[in-house]
Amino acid sequence: MKILLAAVNAKYIHANLAVCSLQAYAGEHVKEADVEIAEYTINQQKDDILMDIYRRRADILCFSCYIWNLDYIEELVRDMAKLRPDMPIWLGGPEVSYDAPDVLARLPEVTGVMKGEGEETFAGLCRFYQGSEGDLGLRSLRGIAFRDRDGTVRDNPWRPVMDLNDIPFVYYHMEAFRNKIIYYESSRGCPFSCSYCLSSVDKQLRFRDLEKVRRELQFFIDQEVPQVKFVDRTFNCRHEHAAAIWKYIAEHDRGITNFHFEVAADLLNEEELEILGSMRPGLVQLEIGVQSTNPDTIQEIRRTMDFGRVRGAVERIREKGNIHQHLDLIAGLPFEDMESFARSFDDVYALGPDQLQLGFLKVLKGSYMEEKKQEYGLVYKSRPPYEVLYTRWLSYEDMMRLKGIEEMVEVYYNSRQFTHTLEALKAGYPSAFLMYDGLAGFYEEQGLGQVQHKRSARYEILLRYITAEFPEEEERFRELLTYDYYLRENAKSRPEFAGEYKVPKDTLRTFYEKEEAQRRYLPAYRDYDRNQMRKMTHLEYFAQKGIYVLFDYRERNALSRDARACRVELSS
Questions:
Q1: What is the distance between the alpha carbons of residues 442 and 449, in angstroms, rounded to a whole number?
Q2: What is the distance between the alpha carbons of residues 391 and 295, in angstroms, rounded to a whole number?
Q3: Could you tell me the residue ranges of all domains in the chain?
Q4: Average per-residue pLDDT for the chain
Q5: Contacts by 216-222 with C-beta closer than 8 Å and gap 24+?
Q6: For position 542, what pLDDT does the model report?
Q7: Which among 57, 359, 480, 568 could bridge 421 via Cys, Cβ 3.0 to 4.6 Å?
Q8: Residue 446 region, left (φ>0) first, then alpha (ψ -120 to 50), else beta?
Q9: Shortest CA distance to 554 belongs to which of 565, 542, 568?
Q10: What is the per-residue pLDDT across 502-535, written as a single tens digit (0 to 9) for each?
Q11: pLDDT for position 132
């Protein structure tokens, strides 16, 4: 009896921890369990996936369902049922757990739904289909909703939560995970009750034993895994647990593996901040959900965040310059109108995060936010991801405006390619929000929003916008854009926006001849001749300040990937 666990991931680089965990647990607890995994992406053609599933000749098919892949999977389910009408099809995952009877009513092709934690439930299904469950059958299996033989939908009770130490480690055979992000959990559940989130439904917080965690993290370090993303909903909700893990990875770091954590910044204590401050640049990434700085909004969505403490922690971490910080905002929350959201945006922007994600509220089934939708005037899309269209406080026109700002933040801020230009440009606006709003308006007026632009074209467009807004500042910003460009790009062809190259050929030749002899600015190039040094660096003259700057592309910032830039003194 062959069971196929099918995962449709967002990207090829992602690995699906859920199906791997189901397979591993069944392998340990069900004798002769024949469970196979097939992973795909939403970027693949559905026909290709359909054919691959068909060729695998499974007896039972199970899909892992999320908000971003449910539509895709439903189409596969309908077509596969036509090809294999006698094959049971099961669904599991957060997107089908909280309205399982409705899912079964909507999809007559589906046999049943696994609700919540799936490891023990899936093992029970394996036993049932092997015929080892006796006469009790599916009716006695907790954690499922299913279609009985007479067509009746039965919704069995939820299963008690598991001991996280009973979950097997799934990554011992790394061949299947090469070149992929590794997802890892050291805890399940969440102590908080944010109304927009399904994690708050599971209030039974559990932790994996620290000795197991240390062994498993050491395995990743030894295997030189590029990145491990912890899926713990609030990693630092137990200080002893977080501090122990951070100490371990700091002490055993080999300079290769990066670890990503979702944290509540206002919960970071002195010990944790000191550990973080001592880490190698690039060892750790932190994702911090701020969502809003409006006190009324924070209270209404049942968060306990103290933004003053968040600000203090983020600023202290930023001062060290060794940790990438990703901060999140959500548009569409209760009591957040355009004016309020603009303040939230400016509050978070002022913290100088490495990434600022402007997301839009998803009204998830089973969440408290869904219960309050009428009170809040929430109107949202009918299909996943159920993104908000408008609220009592924000019109659809407001949402469109924010979508434009989101795109500008993604292109110009989050790319980290325009840092010095944006910092200078912001001085010309009352707020950062209005700066990005103006840029978004320019894109719309010029019909630029629906076109794919090359990286260099983004510099050209930004210069056009600046010239239109501040024509007297054109040359200053041209040089700032040029500086930003060469910080990232070891370009051998000069971009048009930079204008004519201002370093004379004889000056350039003389500089590299002297550098070959003296190694004044490039001491790390001791084994390279002048021609090699020239290929791996760039010398630029900035007339506005009257200075020469050397960009060194062998030495880059571990976080920003900016080249080392140093001022060069040239004798006449």
A1: 9
A2: 18
A3: 2-155, 164-362, 501-568
A4: 94
A5: 216/169, 216/171, 216/184, 217/184, 217/245, 217/248, 217/249, 217/252, 218/252, 219/169, 219/171, 219/172, 220/171, 220/182, 220/184, 220/257, 221/249, 221/252, 221/253, 221/254, 221/256, 221/257
A6: 97
A7: 480
A8: alpha
A9: 565
A10: 999 999 999 999 999 999 999 999 999 999 999 9
A11: 59
Number of helices (H) and strands (E), helices first, in the chain?
A: 21, 20
Its CATH architecture, for the domain 164-362, is Alpha-Beta Horseshoe (3.80)
Distance CA 290, CA 305 (A): 8
Give the pLDDT confidence of 345-359 residue by residue, as tens digits. 999 999 999 999 999
Distance of CA 343 to the CA centre of its chain: 24
Q: Is 261 left (phi over 0), alpha (psi -120 to 50) or beta?
A: beta
How far, in Å, CA of 25 to CA of 246, rounded?
Answer: 28
Q: How confident is the model at residue 135 (pLDDT cuts 50, 70, 90)?
A: very low
| Residue located via tokens 């209270």 | 299
The rounded distance, in Å, linking the Cα atoms of 206 and 165 is 9
d(CA 156, CA 141) in angstroms, rounded, equals: 7
Query: How is residue 410 annotated by DSSP?
Result: I
Helix (H) or strand (E) segment spanning residue 506: helix 505-518
Half-sphere exposure of residue 9: CA atoms within 13 angstroms, side-chain side: 17
Phi, psi angles (nearest 5°) of residue 388:
-60, 140
C-alpha pair distances (Å), 137 with each of 86, 114, 127, 155: 18, 15, 9, 14
pLDDT over threshold 60, residue 133: no
Q: What Rg do the C-alpha atoms of the chain give, in angstroms?
A: 27
pLDDT in tens, 273-323: 999 999 999 999 999 999 999 999 999 999 889 999 999 999 999 999 999
Contact assessment for residue 305 and residue 328, using Cβ atoms and an 8 Å cutoff: no
Who contacts 374 (Cβ-Cβ below 8 Å, separation ≥6)? none
2-155 architecture in CATH? 3-Layer(aba) Sandwich (3.40)
Helices (H), 235-306: 239-251, 270-277, 295-300
Tokens 């407001």 sit at which residue? Answer: 398
Element (H, E) at 357: strand 355-360
For the entire predicted model, the pTM comes to 0.93
| CA–CA dist 179, 230 (Å, integer) | 17
Structure tokens at 441: 């308006």
Report the length, in residues, of the chain.
572
Tokens, residue 197: 């989130």
Paired with 387 in beta bridges are 362
Task: Give the amino acid at 326.
Answer: H
